[in-house]
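Please, structure for the following, as tokens.
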Amino acid sequence: MKNIFVNDDQRMEKRHHEDHHHHYKKKILFVLKRRNYGYGPSFGLINSVKFVCEALKQHKIDYKISIVTDANGIDKEVHDFKPNFVFLEALFVTPTKIIELLEKYKNKDTKWSIRIHSAVPFLQMEGIAITWLKEYFEISKVYKNFFISANSQKAIKELKLGANIDLLYAPNIYLLNEIKYNKKHQTHKEINIACLGAIRPLKNILEQACAAIGFANQNNLKLNFYVNSDRNEQNGINVLKNLEALFINTKHVLIKVPWMNHENLLKFLERIDLGLAVSFTESFCLQAGDYINMNIPIVTSKEITFVSRCYQAEPTDIEDIINKLNYAWEIKRLGFNNSNKRLLEKHNKIAIKAWLDLFRCKM
């Protein structure tokens, strides 16, 4: 497959709602750190922020997404855009730098937040995570215009119970579009299953590959198993090596695809029959939203709350994953009714209300 890289961060760096004829209620600045392209563009964080911005725009909230080389670039973006709220996405700004920024803008009507995108099991992979979060929380006690936020209610609860850190809810949103794709399976001999996303141990990809092979063997199908190959994190390279070994001397094929921008990704998914996202932990999972958006039946773990329980499997129970794949496959062959779209739409309504409530309580 052609390796398609679109420099989205350059495009998004100056992205900003252009219709200046409306009266905007608030201006929100989202700041992301430029990622190392040694393993491919970081589309996940950009896409998650873009979805939130598109949803907020419908409520007359102006926005800008800025991508900075490091925390020193934040000051210019705030000075130029003059936002009511600044959300610093993920953990890249030191507590010392936060204090410096808060002091510089202490006479301005600007609220600041560190917004985390990781569940607690993922946070443990970041050596500074808990130390910084505790320091942020102490800073929030002194500077009332600063707070910590998270995209996961579960992470908020766990950090409160375990670390006595208070966070506000600033959830992810996945805006569904009017795509009508619902590709019919073209052959009785092959099946295309996608298990996309960064290759990390907590994504549980090897277990899912084993389940996909078991499912394909049960149904006498050749499996084409698609994974992303250029984002190997937290010792993910070992996961990839084991995936490659798993498919040796089988009739099944492991197909490694590059990261793509969102438009190209949705086009690519037209060929996929079933999706897998049976992770050990998730704070949201954009890939699940992509499958749902494209009317692809998906099997997940219970960590992805906007998917019906009928499609949720235990991450460490390969037979359960196979059973759920059989269920999803049968539903697809009978004429798939995408009930997960209704669940995702319900999540979106709750998420948008959470953002608007957050703005009201902090103004």
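The mean pLDDT is 88. Residues 8-173+347-362 form a domain with the Rossmann fold fold (CATH 3.40.50.2000).
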